[in-house]
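Final report, Chapter 2: Outcomes

The project's central promise was a pipeline that accepts a single protein chain and returns its three-dimensional structure in a standardized token representation, suitable for archiving and comparison. That pipeline is now operational. To close this chapter, we reproduce one record exactly as it appears in the project archive, with the input sequence first and the structure output second.
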Amino acid sequence: MAKFSQALLQGLLNPTYQQGLFEAARNVGAAPGVFAQQKTNEARALEAKKREGAVQQGLMAISQAASRGVPLASLQNAIQSIVAQGGTQAQIMEAYKAGSSGKKAPVTLSAGAALVDPETGKVIAERGFKPEAADAPKVSFVKTKDDKQVLVFEGTELVNTIEPEGNADEEIAARDFVSGSATATLVTVREALATLDESYAGVDPGGISGAITSMLPGSPSHELMTSTYVTIAGKEALDEINRMKAEAAKFGSRGTGLGQVTQIEFAALQGNLAKLNTGLTVERQKQLLRKIEQKLVSARRIASGENPIDVIDFNDPTYIEAGYIKEGGDVYYFAPDGKEFIYDRNKESFVPYAGD
């Protein structure tokens, strides 16, 4: 303690250290203005997303009207609305020509969607979400004016369209909470991984040295145990996971047979959270953090409208023990009573399986 106090006094007498304190204080003073500017930028970005969604909806309406033979001159109100939202004449003409050409429009799959044969129910083609980036943009949800669709944006990019199962506002609130909460925890998980990747003068922030140095303020292990891991897996974090589980039940699992799947996913997440400890080796801590990261990414992808069947790793022992098997694009469930089910993509639910 004496050495620490002496080092601190020497640091305070150091002009460079004093300048650092001055800069830190000045940055703290500027924080309210920075925060206000950030809020303004977020509001502008959200408004831009809404305009983009409105333009896309308008262009779809133009194309559909053209396919029914409606003259372009009769669509002036729609054209004016599209232009007012930032659409261009070129986009309007392209949409009208596509609708009036008489040719079948090419099929474009939204991120996370699957193209299914309506007769056999087999998957013809799939498009997954783009790989998760460390600095993935914020996911936001905007409903259309008729409340029949929810547009999903990553940053300013429209990545998916969802048909809400019930009240659009309630479903948006649920999806937004799950996505936002998962994203916030992901940031902390990745900070912990970065901490474990660094070298600290030969002191390992794991195992015996990690358990001992976790009691020493200022050490990496102490920071992990008293701050980072508390944020990831403390009581408030577990309460947050429980709320995420409840909110997730409001979409994607009602009457579809997917309720048990989402419960298993969140239970596995909580199980990994409970094991975090600097007394574990660094490699074991990293393994747990990566599993937690995977579960959080899955939760965010499902909240963004991707089918849980295409997101979850059914080869995980947890799911195999629970009776699930995935072969190709098909997922089977073997219930404890001996009944067998297969996931029907047309009905978006598990149905009795009678064999091939």
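Archive annotation: Confidence is low (pLDDT under 50) at residues 1-5, 103-110.
This record, like all others produced under the grant, will remain available to the consortium after the project formally closes.
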